[in-house]
Structure formats: C-alpha cells, structure tokens
Amino acid sequence: MSLPIEVDQQQPEITKAQIPLETTDFFNQIIRELSGALQEIVGLNEAEGFIALVANRIGEKVNSDYKSALHLEQIPRPLLADVLVDLKRRIGGQFSVEYEDDKVLILKNARCPFGDRVKDRPSLCMMTTNVFGRIAADCHGYARVQIDRSIARGDTDCRVVVHLAPTAENDVNGKEFYRVR
C-alpha cells in the first residue's frame, strides 16, 4: 500500500507550469529528430528515400481525401495548383502560385509547415516532393518535382517546380512520378 505524498504548497501546480510543449510542436520535434538521425546514420540520400516512402503514402491518402471531398474521380488540371496550395495552407505552409501553364507549375513558399524545425533537414523536402508528385501524377498522368530553393537548405523561401510533361533534356534534378492504376 502506498502512502500519500505531501505536496509542497510553495511549488506551483504542475498543470500551470510554463512548459513550451504542445502537440504540433512536439510532433515537429519528433520528425526533426527522426530525419536528423536518418541523415546522420544512413546519409542524406538514403534518408530522403525513407521519407519518400512515407510521403508517397501520405500523398495517396491526401489525394484520395481531396477527390472524395470535392466529389471527383480525378482532380482536373485547372484545379491542381489550388489543391496543392490549399493542402499546404491547411498544414501551416504559405504556398502561392508563381507561374502556371499546361506544362509546369511553379510554387513558392514563405513558411514551412515544419517551421524552423526544418532547418538543416533537407530530407524533409521529400514530403513536399512526393505529396505534390503523387497528386500531380494522378491528375495529369506524369509529374517531375524539383525543389530549386528550400528553407531546409538555408534559403529564405522555397521554390517548387512541378513539371507536368517529360522534358527533352531529361533533367536529373527532381523526382519523376507516374499515375498508377
């Protein structure tokens, strides 16, 4: 049998203690530490591969959620940029369309959903690459996503280019995605 513990009335109540801890920040810290551990242990390329696997699954789920919510079998091309910007807004990013035509979408971002926790964690850019790539490829049949600038790499903003058609130069920058059905 345990004995009651005396509480020192001079000490503040634990629930009122000023501890900077809340759900989103906590999960962002977990993601930062996981990606950092991966980058340190297996290297950046392999860390990006692991994160890409997770992001691909998330991309499929988010794509399905948008199609269901909008009552669509497929996101139409004219709505693609709006969907990509909206999904990032919903998770705390600040994306906007810089340029758009039938062959390319260029999006810029002033605030990463991971906040400052993304700094020095470029492997986390695979989240954007794969989620955007999976949704764009499902919509258009093909996508190649490249990140020209990123907050994670120390830039002041992000610039994400989503190619909607293969290019003749077969650019090695970026990652290709195809519709799977």
From TrEMBL:
Residues 30-162 form the Metanogen output domain. It holds the Pfam family MetOD1. This is Metanogen output domain-containing protein. It comes from Roseibium aggregatum.
